Amino acid sequence: MDFFIDTANLDQIKEAEALGILDGVTTNPSLMAKEGITGRNAVLKRYVDICEMVNGPVSAEVIATDYAGMIKEGTELAELHDNIVVKVPMIPDGIKAIRTFTEQGIPTNCTLVFSAGQALLAAKAGATFVSPFIGRIDDSNWDGIELIEQIVEVYANYGFETQILAASIRNPLHIVRCAEAGADVATCPLSSIMGLFKHPLTDIGLEKFLADYKKVEG
Ligand code: E4P
């Protein structure tokens, strides 16, 4: 399973990249706003900065919600850098735009997906990635992981090549459960990635090895 980081924060991307396990980045308008980025030029510059830090797909979201607007904006985003994946919302005009981008060879990420039916539409349009938001589903008292399992089954039935990008990850257990379910990618906050390291027996074991080595050294 590929690991993407879900942030527009350059320090966090640098920290994840330094671990040597980072495969890509996803952003969204809320994550840009969180960084205090204002103005279109600053947003575009942040995408380029991120692309230069990570050798993998970087999702950049369109703001337009009509077909023509999404094509114009997505084309501009794709021209920024080879790593850019155009992130498009799961609405009828979005699906039309994904079909056009697919025909033009521009990679896409269909975002705001909350059902297997929506994931089926994204795959039929040729999306490179589909982003089911598992944390937001859990927040609304449904089971986000069940949706991943369902999409894995539906895609396998027909050999769809769209990659399942589990999004809205809230904790390390979400990552592990997505891996069990067969998600192709998990996009995670840095805290969830770092949470994977944690086990008290690792800390206790390391402490004991170091203490015992002091005896060996004399
Ligand atoms: C990523 O592509 C999504 O936009 C993101 O994971 C949403 O996460 P949230 O539900 O924590 O906002």
What does this structure look like?
With 218 residues, this protein is α/β, with parallel strands linked by helices. α9 links the parallel β7 and β8. α6 packs parallel to α8 and α8 runs parallel beside α9. The protein is globular, with a radius of gyration of 19 Å. The mean pLDDT is 98. The structure holds erythose-4-phosphate. The site of erythose-4-phosphate has 12 residues, from α7.
List the SSEs and their pairings.
Blueprint: E1 2-6, H1 10-18, E2 24-26, H2 29-34, H3 40-53, E3 58-61, H4 67-80, E4 84-89, H5 92-103, E5 108-113, H6 116-124, E6 129-132, H7 134-139, H8 144-158, E7 163-166, H9 172-181, E8 185-188, H10 190-195, H11 200-217
Parallel strand pairs: 1-2, 1-8, 2-3, 3-4, 4-5, 5-6, 6-7, 7-8
Helix pairs in contact: 4-5, 6-8, 8-9
| Total of DSSP H or I helical runs spanning 4+ residues | 11
Could you say which small molecules are bound to this protein? erythose-4-phosphate
Q: What is the radius of gyration computed over CA atoms, rounded to a whole number of angstroms?
A: 19 Å
Reading the helices and strands in chain order gives EHEHHEHEHEHEHHEHEHH
- Give the CA-based shape: globular
The biggest beta sheet reads: 8 strands, parallel, barrel
Helical amount among residues, as a percent range? 40-55%
Strand portion: 15-25%
The span between the termini is: 45 Å
Q: Tell me the number of strands.
A: 8
Low-confidence stretches: none
Q: State the secondary-structure class.
A: alpha/beta
Record the strand order, biggest sheet.
Answer: 1-2-3-4-5-6-7-8
Mean pLDDT: 98
